[in-house]
Amino acid sequence: MISQFFVLSQRGDNIVFRDYRGEVQKETAEIFFRKVKFWKEDGQEEAPPVFNVDGVNYFHVKVVGLLFVATTRINLSPSFVFELLQRIARVIKDYLGVLNEDSLRRNFVLVYELLDEVIDFGYVQTTSTEVLKSYVFNEPIVVDSAHLSPLGPASLFMQGTKRMPGTAVTKSVVANDPSGRKREEIFVDIIEKISMTFSSSGYILTSEIDGTIQMKSYLTGNPEIRLALNDDLSIGRDYRSSVGSGVVILDDCNFHESVRLDSFEAEKTLSLVPPDGEFPVMNYRMTQEFKPPFRINALIEEAGALKAEVILKVHAEFPSSITANTISIQMPLPKYTMRASFELETGAVGQTTDFKEANKKLEWNLKKIVGGSEHTLRARLTFSQESHGNITKESGPVSMTFTIPMYNASKLQVKYLQIAKKSGTYNPYRWVRYVTLSNSYVARL
């Protein structure tokens, strides 16, 4: 059981607070934020997801910049609390459509009603969007897509000036169209998080994809649907020696409880009755070799007794029709680095550089990278001492974060989606959103 639940903004503002048992002091939100902001224990710069202060256990996850926190005095399973916090965030997003500070403040009455149904006296009752519909009666105040953050879900699918119809998924599952009609739509996303490690010469040392097929349903009557995947899809390590290079091989996968696998082995088709709201149809993992979306090359050379030069190059390996967004590249520098000056390539647009003196890090941010392009950064370093060790060993590794809409490295595809119940009001879009994100993308020096 949990004692309290609250949501904080990045500034530490208490947006939502619910005390279920009255056994923990009311100042926990302030104590938590002060501890997280100034965390310096165990040589770490960031607070761990669970810690104890004065006998109170604090569990927290960050969702779209918001801190979802639970407190308790008893010894609870961390994985249980983290899953609960994630599910609460998903339920709130299902009902509000958009999960951010503005939507929470505008819909605080609905949010508190949801929290009282999800948890009773610290005990979890249900986290099902569909079940909660029977108990929650407040209507959401719709937040216009113009209020979304530039890094929000709608902006991920902007390619030039063309807007994908997927922005409809930022609406509530209980809200109707302005015309009063029920929206009969269903959306499918394939979201992949890539982990890769490159050697100093650019060879791939480790590679892994953690993916999910995410679905959000607005269909009334919960009709049965069929989702068809690649015909050449194989699951399990045993397939590696018996199939060609073009086959999609997943190491393992698991499915939502509503999925039936009667036709999966023979036809690679999933049958399910989708519940209301957003849910993962299938989670999967892949360690088979795949083409990396980016190649990173890093070189650091001494340029005198107290100087050195860093050269960073990033090359986009995906097609020129695709654009990556919000790219950030970081590189730890020797602890005796005093200053860093930067030189970008001629005509560089939408790029910023910074030297974080507090933690001796070089940071290079690019607003977007078009497929097939290459970008270079030169950084000239000034050191505070002449006698130092191996500069290369004391620098790096180079880490990179990015988002690539409409691209997936595993080549897993949704061939088609069929709705068993024929209805002229159903409007499934004839496309699937693909998103590739960085989980751990590292290049050694």
TrEMBL record:
What species is this protein from? Answer: Cannabis sativa
> In which family does this protein belong, per the annotation?
Belongs to the adaptor complexes medium subunit family.
Q: Return the InterPro entries for the record.
A: Adaptor_comp_med_subunit, AP2_Mu_C_sf, Clathrin_mu, Longin-like_dom_sf, MHD
Query: Cellular location of this protein?
Result: Endomembrane system
Q: Which GO terms describe its biological process?
A: intracellular protein transport; vesicle-mediated transport
Can you say what this protein is called?
A: MHD domain-containing protein
**Does the entry feature the keyword Transcription, yes or no?**
no
CDD domains, per this entry? AP-4_Mu4_Cterm, AP4_Mu_N
Q: Which GO terms describe its cellular component?
A: clathrin adaptor complex; endomembrane system
Q: Which gene encodes it?
A: LOC115715804
Task: Return any one Pfam family short name.
Answer: Adap_comp_sub
Specify the MHD domain's residue ranges. 183-444
Write down the Gene3D superfamilies for this protein, in alphabetical order.
Answer: 3.30.450.60, Mu homology domain, subdomain B
